[in-house]
Amino acid sequence: MSQHPTLNRFQFTEDLAICPLLNGMWQVSGGHGKINPKQAVAQMFDYVDAGLTTWDLADHYGPAEDLIGEFRRQLIAQRGAEAWTGVQALTKWVPRPGEMSREVVERNVDRALERMDVDCLDLMQFHWWDYGDRRYFDALGHLADLQTAGKIKHLALTNFDTEHLQAVLDAGIAIASNQVQFSLIDRRPLVKMAPFCAARGVKLLAYGTLGGGLLTEQFLNAGEPSRWSLKTASLGKYKQMVDVGYGWQLFQDLLQTLAKIATKHQVSIANIAVRYVLEQEAVAGAIVGARLSIAEHIAENLRVFTFQLDDDDDRQLEAVLSQGDDLFALIGDCGDEYRR
Description:
Structural class: alpha/beta
Shape: globular
Largest sheet: 8 strands, parallel, barrel
Strand content: 5-15%
CATH class of the domain at 15-213 and 271-308: Alpha Beta
CATH architecture of the domain at 15-213 and 271-308: Alpha-Beta Barrel
Oligomer: single chain
Radius of gyration: 19 Å
Strand order of the largest sheet: 3-4-5-6-7-8-9-10
Helix content: 40-55%
CATH topology of the domain at 15-213 and 271-308: TIM Barrel
C-alpha cells in the first residue's frame, strides 16, 4: 500500500521534510515556451500556498536558481523570514568533465548560493557525464567537505546507475537520493535501482512521470504525432521512450487502461500516472513540471493525494505494460541514455 496517502510531508532525511510532489523547473530552461519572470514568481506563491512547497531546479535550467532567489526575497519581504523555512529548493550541479579542485567545486556551490540567495543548499544533486573520468570522486569529496562546512545540507546524485551509485556509497560518501527517469513508460528503476536504494537507505526522486505530457487525456485516442508536431522538448524526449518500448498502438492501450482507472477514482490520467510512481519502492517524490507563467495544474496535481491504487488497478496496468519491450535490456540502467 502507498507510503503517500495524503499531502503530509515526507521525511526525506532526519532534518528535511519535502512535499512528495515536487515542482520541476526544467520547464523554465527553454524549449517549453517563453517564461515571464515576474508572472513566474507570482505563480510560485500559488504553488507554495497550495502545499506544493518543494522545487527541483539546476544550475543549467536557465533562470531557475534566479527565480528561486527572487521568490525567496519576495516571500520574506511579505511574510517574514519564517515563511521560507517551509520551502525546499533542491538544486543540481551538472559540470562538464574537467578539473575538480576544491576551488572549482566551491566556486560552483557559491554561485548556486548566490543565485538562490541562501546561506545553505537544502540538497545538491550531482551529475557526471563520463564514468571513465574518475574525477567525479574528487568533486564529491569536495562537496562532502563543503557539506561539513555548512554550505550544503545534503548531497545527492542525479542519473547515476546502480553500479556507480554503489561505488560512491562504498567510498564513504553519504548520498540522500538519486534522481532518475521513472514513469509508466520507463520502469527501468524497478530492475536494480529501486531495490538497491531501499536496501541502502537512498531515496529516489522520479522525473518524467508524465512523459512530458504524453500520459494525459490530450493523447488518448489520438493519432501518432510527427516529430515536428510535438511542441515541447519534453514531449520529443519521452516520445522516443514510447517508440523504443511500446509503439503507438500499445501506448494507446495503456492510455485506455489509465482512463478506465482514472474514471473509477474520479481523477485524471496524469494523476494515475504520478500515483503509480509514488507508490513504488524507495520513491520519495515525483517531479511534475511547473510551466510557470504559461500554464498551471495545481488543483489537478493535488488530487494525487486523494486516492490510492488498489490491487485490481495494478493488475490492469501490468497486463498492458508487460507487453512492452524490455527498456533495461535495450537502453541500460538509469541514466545510461545520457552516456550511450
